[in-house]
Batch of 2 targets.
Target 1
Amino acid sequence: MKTAVVYFTLGGATRSFARAEANARGADLLQAVPVKKYNMLTAFTRGCPAAIRQKCVPLQHSLDLSGYDRIVLMAPVWAGFPAPPFNTVVHLLPAGKEVEVLLVSASGSSDKSHDKVRALIASQGCKVVAQRDIRSHQ
Ligand SMILES: Cc1cc2nc3c(=O)[nH]c(=O)nc-3n(C[C@H](O)[C@H](O)[C@H](O)COP(=O)(O)O)c2cc1C
């Protein structure tokens, strides 16, 4: 099974977890980089409202995910939802893929967005086979 781990990070925590995940699985590691970069301020002012509304943001490079059987999506949780570049990657998913969602947060919980995230991925014709939260701070 060919697997890709696709991640967005602002502060670097998600990158560390994504690297470990890709190494453990022998998967390719792909980064989603937004055209308009966030900083801590704009993550709150611009990123959080967009995250809650599950909005997409343009990425610097499109990602070709057609050659993979399983795609592991990783992103930080902003205001309870995956950060907006995650949504863009979901829209790039070819139908029929197996998808895992691994979200990184300070609290280790993204419960309030679980159903909406599943619905977004299902709307692409993909199946969520695992959904897990990772706590970034102990
Ligand atoms: C704009 C913003 C919003 C956040 N909202 C939440 C939240 O709702 N719940 C939570 O547990 N952590 C929240 N966090 C903390 C991040 O999810 C956490 O620090 C994560 O590890 C950051 O990942 P990164 O270093 O890959 O960017 C937020 C952080 C930022 C910058």
Target 2
Amino acid sequence: MKTIPDSGVLYPNSFVHHLLLALEDVLGKNGVKAILNMAGQSAMIDNYPPDDMTPGVDIARYSSIIAALDDMYGDRGAQALALKAGNVLFRETMKKTGDPLNVESDEFKAKSLEDKVESALLMIWNFVNRSSETKMPRTADGQFLYVASKCPICYGRETKTPRCFLTTGLLQAAIRYATGLEFPVTQVKAHSCGDPSCDYVIPVVPNS
Ligand SMILES: [Zn+2]
């Protein structure tokens, strides 16, 4: 596998810690060992980054781990695994944060479906970017647009089609938590395809 040189951009330890635990959930401990070896990250075997928000892991290492997943399981297999891992990642993060949107409250229940989806997307965006935006951008035809400008999944990689399925799974899980429904999340752009950012489009109505 091609080595991805360090970028100088560091990602919080906790995000990598939970990525590896989520991968363990879908691949088993030995599966993660094999992935870390293949990714040139054997130093992380039995030595995961700690569960804290210190920026300690170069995003090139994160993308190497995902690239190894693609190499080892093939496009289709890795897609299914990454989607699953994204869902686990959400579930595990929620165990720590509780119920940040207070989805059982009367106030939240009174929101429109569209507002619920927007709340879910903002929750993830603000968490990852450590910001406090209150509106999601939209596409020209009114769908939600989720833009990841520094994507740790495909940094330094080249893919024929957008493949940041970990984020797709994470967004699907967040919307499911907020609405109880399945929404399609479609990645339309990727760094690894030469685009300036990794973009996802989410409709304001669920799957029919
Ligand atoms: Zn990406």
